Amino acid sequence: MAKISLTVNGKKVSAEIEGRTLLVQVLREKLGMTGTHVGCDTSQCGACVVHVDGKSVKSCTMLAAQADGTAVTTIEGLANGNELHPMQAAFKEHHGLQCGFCTPGMVMSAIELAKRNSNPSEHDVREWLEGNICRCTGYHNIVKAVQAGAQAMAAAK
Amino acid sequence: MYDFAYHKPATVADAAKILAADGDAKALAGGQTLIPTLKQRLAKPSAVVDLSAIKDLAGISVAGGKVTIGAMTRHGDVAASADVKKALPALAALADGIGDPQVRNRGTIGGSIANNDPAADYPAACLALGATIKTNAREIAADAFFLGMFETALKPGELIVSVSFPIPEKAAYVKFGQPASRYALVGVMVAKTATGARVAVTGAASAVFRWSDAEAALSKSWNAASLDGVKVSPDGLNSDIHAAADYRAHLVGVMAKRAVATAG
Prior knowledge:
The complex is a heterodimer of chains A (about 160) and B (about 260).
Chain A: E1 2-8, E2 11-17, H1 23-30, E3 49-52, E4 55-58, E5 71-73, H2 86-93, H3 103-116, H4 122-128, H5 139-156
Chain B: E1 5-7, H1 12-21, E2 25-28, H2 34-39, E3 47-50, E4 60-63, E5 66-70, H3 75-80, H4 82-87, H5 89-96, H6 101-106, H7 109-115, H8 122-129, E6 132-135, E7 139-141, E8 146-148, E9 151-152, E10 160-166, E11 170-177, E12 184-193, E13 196-202, E14 209-210, H9 212-220, H10 245-263
Parallel strand pairs in B: 1-3, 2-3
Antiparallel strand pairs in B: 4-5, 5-10, 6-7, 6-10, 8-9, 11-12, 12-13, 13-14
């Protein structure tokens, strides 16, 4: 067992891990933050997307040891108290979810797109969401939500 | 996943020492293939050697008619690099088409090349552009590097440090993605260089290969129409539930023409 220290949603935390422990296991099992989901466990579905040092990554495809010393943001770190993050609010407003299982990963992935492109086209959004799978196939409203969320993020700056 | 010892050395020499001393140790670059492989228990390394703390393994430079990319440079950084987009736009476009954004944020050029997946994109770029792969021990021409399915010329303890791509007159990479995985069913990189055309094919066979008949035709005349009637044999090409060998052979021709047309 080794000890890692990282910052999760602005808070310094540490955890005892094995070599094989995944970042998502630390988040869910050690820190009790179950907002980050594990969908496929084969690195394809994107439900586990979090930000590591500002970039979206699949937390099921990164060893916890690789996250030592990094700053991680999860879905739990987005809202400001009861005030939703603009991307979360857009998913709510545009009904960008059905069962909601893929939503944390969709939102985290979409926020990186919005940071790169404040006014993405439908094509831009669909290309960017290549690594996020919605088994309810609710893509239509997800795309609308991401476009609205990106514009809201730009307006809130 | 089976457990393993985790190492995070600070130098290439230290990483190479661990890998050379233990044949069951594995180097970890971006981990986008290795970690899924470990999760499925398809590999059982005794140790994983994380290369991310080694300084100077990541970075991009353009000089002397070459684009040189450090082994630990992420696909997303190659795709977004203003220098690569200007000097070798086909390579930036290729990097931008690998996997998905999250894979591109982690996956590295060195990892992709060392793994030599039969459907990986970067090996096609190395072969078509005549890249030189620099390791901690020597320099290896791309033509001598990719030996077979998941097999390269790398020796135990040998690590890729950087990859140098000579800047061609023109180049383009076009792939036909498998509809579910988006891995290349067939991908073709074409390059027009001062010494002739080079054409590399990925996804179609057990490993990336050069298509010499197409190179001869394009060296005579750089034009998609030059490939009319030039066919690759389906013998030895991959045949699976996604595509039969003759379909892949057909796609090689179509992708090659599209690549020439894209390169202009």
